[in-house]
Design brief:
alpha+beta; Nuclear Transport Factor 2, Chain: A; disordered N terminus
Length: 320
């Protein structure tokens, strides 16, 4: 019995596993794995930071470029709008008023040069405008008429004016009595900084051809032809209407959809230039002769009308 128990204990002791080497292997593996994970995370974090910084710089430069471009466009638009403003015309009118006017006395001429200097860009020598000391007489401005503005760059433009002036030469008694009136087209070159203006060159003379080859559009109105009877009826109705329309009497609202007519215009005659009919509605172009009340002055005015039938008569729904 003892022997059997001794054998059993020996076998139990011999079959027990050795846990020490297995635990050492697990700690070493876990340590290596943790180190690998740590350095992997650090490497990925560094890589993502580099990528993020690179993209951030790219976006930053792109935004800066867009902002710069937008500012340049806004500045260019502001400068272009500066010439679209009527202020540029007024500035040039004031300059031309000073430039054209040449006083007869020496003190007035000196004051003229001082005033002209204020219109020019910094550094411009007003002596380039020519000496007037030898001119014995005066020049007066009669009228200024603005023609057009021609942009020459983003910050400069040429403004055209039609200028009428009177020159009086005092060198002889005969010249004094015969003043010369001149009408000339003058070009003034302006520059702007977006908020103000300055003249950059001496004015120059030019001649623009304002005559255009314009053909009148076809005046024919749409629609079918109107019978002679209906034409006569319409003519009689329009004569009554334009008589009323010329003085805005109480019968006018019953003949047309108009709130207010004319005053002091005496109806003389009318001519139907064009007349058409479509879906029962008449369209016509009329030349009307009115005479100014209490005078013999007569003028012809053209009206385009839309007329609809109305209980045996007519009613004007549109007048232009």
């Amino acid at each position: 019995m003892k022997r059997a128990f001794s054998v059993f204990r020996k076998q139990r002791t011999t079959s027990s596993p050795e846990p020490t080497r297995h635990l050492r292997f697990s700690r070493r593996t876990a340590s290596k794995t943790a180190s690998l994970l740590f350095f992997s995370v650090m490497s990925l974090s560094l890589l993502f930071n580099v990528i993020f910084f690179s993209k951030y710089q790219t976006i930053r430069h792109s935004v800066q470029a867009q902002q710069t471009s937008l500012q340049e466009q806004l500045q260019e638009t502001q400068e272009t709008d500066a010439f679209a403003s009527h202020a540029a015309v007024i500035y040039t009118e004031n300059f031309l008023t000073t430039y054209i006017t040449i006083p007869a006395d020496e003190q007035g001429r000196k004051k003229r040069l001082e005033n002209l200097q204020t219109f020019y860009a910094q550094g411009f020598d007003v002596s380039r405008l020519g000496a007037v000391e030898t001119f014995s007489g005066s020049r007066e401005l009669q009228s200024l008429r603005y023609l057009e503005t021609v942009p020459t760059s983003a910050t400069t433009a040429d403004l055209h004016f039609l200028v009428t002036s009177t020159i009086t030469d005092a060198s002889t008694e005969e010249a004094k009595e015969n003043s010369l009136e001149k009408e000339e087209e003058i070009v003034v070159s302006l520059a702007t900084d977006g908020s103000g203006y300055a003249v950059t060159k001496p004015p120059r003379l030019t001649k623009s051809d304002l005559q255009g080859e314009v053909k009148l559009p076809d005046p024919a109105v749409e629609g079918e032809a109107v019978s002679t009877t209906e034409r006569k009826q319409l003519t009689a109705f329009l004569e009554k209407f334009f008589t009323s329309y010329g003085v805005s009497d109480e019968t006018m609202p019953f003949m047309a959809a108009v709130e207010k007519g004319l005053t002091g215009q005496v109806f003389e005659s009318l001519v139907l230039r064009q007349l058409g009919k479509k879906d029962g509605v008449l369209t016509t172009v009329v030349d009307v002769t009115y005479r100014e009340e209490n005078t013999s002055l007569a003028s012809v005015y053209t009206y385009a009308l839309v007329v609809e039938p109305d209980d045996g008569t007519f009613f004007i729904t549109s007048i232009q």
